[in-house]
Amino acid sequence: MRLLFPGTRGEIEIRSRVHRRHSCLMVEERVLVDCGADWLGGFGSPEAIVLTHAHPDHVGGLKRGADCPVYATPDTWARLKRYPIRDRRVIAPRRPVVVCGVTFEAFPVTHSLIAPAVGYRITTRAAGVFYIPDVADIQERHRVLSGVTLYIGDGASITRPLLRRRGETIIGHASVRDQLDWCHEETIEQAIVTHCGSQIVREGSAAIDRLKTLGKERGVDVLVAYDGMEMTVARNGTRILD
């Protein structure tokens, strides 16, 4: 499976040379996952777009529409009624859908009440990846992560969860440390951090070293994605191409 990270910055003010634009993922050079406001008018020519949720840093680039099919859950479409997207396709949670030869299965995750989010289990013959750029917790975590080759997760905070309570529900962002614990529990040996928050963007190499140490303590090889990073993923490992 071929992956490209066109953008890796979260919804923060600070930017850097390697974390400039809102996080998104290109799969097999054909399917773009998310299209935030930084990409308005300039997100290339994907054959399809798949959305995780309706926050502006994930959908704002589509305010003028799209020239390809756009896939999203009913919750996300309900919040994009005014977007001039002609070819709207629905992904129902827990029902795999083949998009341009790649299988996407949406799983609800805890993140926001205003914009309910999903993570995607993305599968080809070569590998299985779980992509979740915004997450406080994953429902049915064992089912979601079992057999995954690579976890790609939320880099909003390294060790301190950014969580708030709304009634009985916790919303916000799990720390990378907590997500690495999930990987350890499910014997996922490789993880990539994207949707990078202020800590990672500001601290640069020092933050990368901290993350690698956290990963090593849990038996997980950790990479921090950067804008333009391209890689291949197979069941026996990953390889950076650029």
Quick summary of this structure?
This protein is of the alpha/beta class and 242 residues long. It has helices spanning 56-59, 74-78, 141-145, 176-185, 198-203, 205-217; strands at residues 2-7, 24-27, 31-33, 48-50, 70-72, 88-90, 97-99, 102-110, 117-123, 128-131, 137-138, 150-154, 162-166, 169-173, 190-194, 221-224, 229-234, 237-240.
Word description of this protein:
By secondary structure, this protein is of the alpha/beta class. The chain has one domain: Metallo-beta-lactamase, Chain A, CATH 3.60.15.10. Helices cover 18% and strands 33% of the residues. The chain has helices spanning 56-59, 74-78, 141-145, 176-185, 198-203, 205-217; strands at 2-7, 24-27, 31-33, 48-50, 70-72, 88-90, 97-99, 102-110, 117-123, 128-131, 137-138, 150-154, 162-166, 169-173, 190-194, 221-224, 229-234, 237-240. It has an eight-stranded mixed beta sheet. Strands 7, 8, 9, 10, 11, 12, 15 and 16 form an eight-stranded mixed beta sheet that branches. Strands 13-14 form a two-stranded antiparallel sheet. The mean pLDDT is 95.
